[in-house]
């Protein structure tokens, strides 16, 4: 079996024989699916604005049959830059308490995950999940202990794609004192009895 991806004019964007591939796609498009497992997934590197398709998958079986799946054409919505990460900070931030922040981005290539970078040190955990319509989401969670010096500081999450393109989101941390209600007691000593008497009279 031979798997081929081509344009509507039958010009291949992927073919096992690279000499048959359109010059602008040569070396950028690769079949990463397993045809024996009915997986015809294609990866396009260094995506360009004009790489929007539509693209058609074609199967050729030697001495048997050939077929192009024109009823299942694939088009790509190519944007100028990735969307900014979604950044959230859980709960009220108090000095001395543990704080958890979450940063997530959606992407379209599970073999080239975006790298999420935090502006603050702490303990990080990462996970990736598949979404509908050929999308994935990668999420990074950051846990740290808030201090007074974090107050009014930017917490930034940067998503870097293939070490080339990067986008970021920031939130300003509002760190409250752990003990918000303070009571101040003071004692007034008077050396002259008449002063104390006058204060007492004024209070009453």
UniProtKB/TrEMBL annotation:
Domain Ig-like: 85-174
Entries under Pfam families matching the protein: C2-set_2
Keyword list, A-Z: Disulfide bond
Domain of life: Eukaryota
Organism of provenance: Anguilla anguilla (European freshwater eel)
PROSITE patterns for this protein: IG_LIKE
Protein name, entry field: Ig-like domain-containing protein
